[in-house]
Amino acid sequence: MIDLRSDTVTKPTPEMRQAAFEAVVGDDVYNEDPTILKLEALAAEIVGKEKAMFVPSGTQGNQIAVLTHCVSGQEVILEADSHIYFYEGATISAFAGVQPRTIKGKDGVMDPEEVKLAIREDDIHQPETGLICLENTHNRAGGAIVPLENMRDIYSISKEAHIPVHLDGARLFNASVATGISIKEYAAYTDTVQFCLSKGLGAPVGSIIAGDEAFIVKARKWRKRLGGGLRQAGMIAAPGIVALNKMVDRLTEDHEKARLLAQGLIEIGFSVENNVDTNIVLVNTQSRGYTAKQFVEKLKESGILSSAFGPDTVRFTTHYDVSEEDIQNSIDLIKKLV
Ligand SMILES: *Cc1c(COP(=O)(O)O)cnc(C)c1O
Predict the structure, then answer these.
(1) CATH number, span 10-246
(2) Residue bearing the CA closest to ligand 1, atom 4
(3) Which of 60, 199, 307 to mutate to test the pocket of ligand 1 (most atoms within 8 A of CB)?
(4) Which CATH superfamily, name and number, covers 250-337?
(5) Domain ranges for the chain
(6) Rounded distance, CA 293 to CA 281, Å?
(7) How remote is the CA of residue 199 from the centroid of ligand 1, in Å?
(8) pLDDT in tens, 16-64
């Protein structure tokens, strides 16, 4: 099977497995796991924030951010197709008790003027705006890169209004590698950042949430409340250290593979719906007479796994466990199918 469903399907590298095997560990709820502390220090350094904290998943990292920044009854501004709004089970409402205020972006990019207008006034009838969330790269926009200038503009609006900004940077490393803009530069226009170790970077488990020290102190408490306080977690943090040290630069290969796939599919007569900035390709199946579900099934019979993304859209995601040859083979197989 050539698995192009997601960049989460990768298996840990031999070096990650070795690192897990050899990890020096302690009880992380007591702050005594040396490998966790090492990963958190490395992550904080990379994002340029005072502190970082390991969390079991990106979803938990985002939810901890909302819970830590906000109080119940506030409103959070987010992009209408953002992961936090679309894919996290309404947890911001159910757990944090906040109301989402969505803004439809273009390729995942919100207009700063619209963000400004969405910020609530001091009025007895209205909720307070408690947080603004950004996402880069933008998942549902097909791994689209949100330009640094856009983040800067929204950040400056937020600072005038004294509202914090959280970045869901599950795939921020993809943006950074594609643009040459450092993680630190992106993170400079945020108060807190979440990024995944378990997506393109290939670690088996985990995400990082970073911010200033006061934020992380509160966030640790939320993590414990949510059941994310782990014990000898160095076992799973060690592969994360390998991910940050060894797996970042190679993301360019994933982007090349995505472009290769997009090109190949366009040549067969499919239309590609996204710009393919990074490692995701959104392919429209309608012109070839398939619904997304039908096409996914058909591909599966030929040994290719993909995701139905919309009624007529199939999503392919490249990652280090698929080679350029796999991509070429996939294109050849699809050519035969249609
Ligand atoms: C995958 C993803 C998450 C959630 O990460 P999990 O580790 O799967 O919980 C959050 N935000 C974005 C943009 C994602 O792509």
Answers:
(1) 3.40.640.10
(2) 58
(3) 199
(4) Aspartate Aminotransferase, domain 1 (3.90.1150.10)
(5) 10-246, 250-337
(6) 16
(7) 8
(8) 999 999 999 999 999 999 999 999 999 999 999 999 999 999 999 999 9
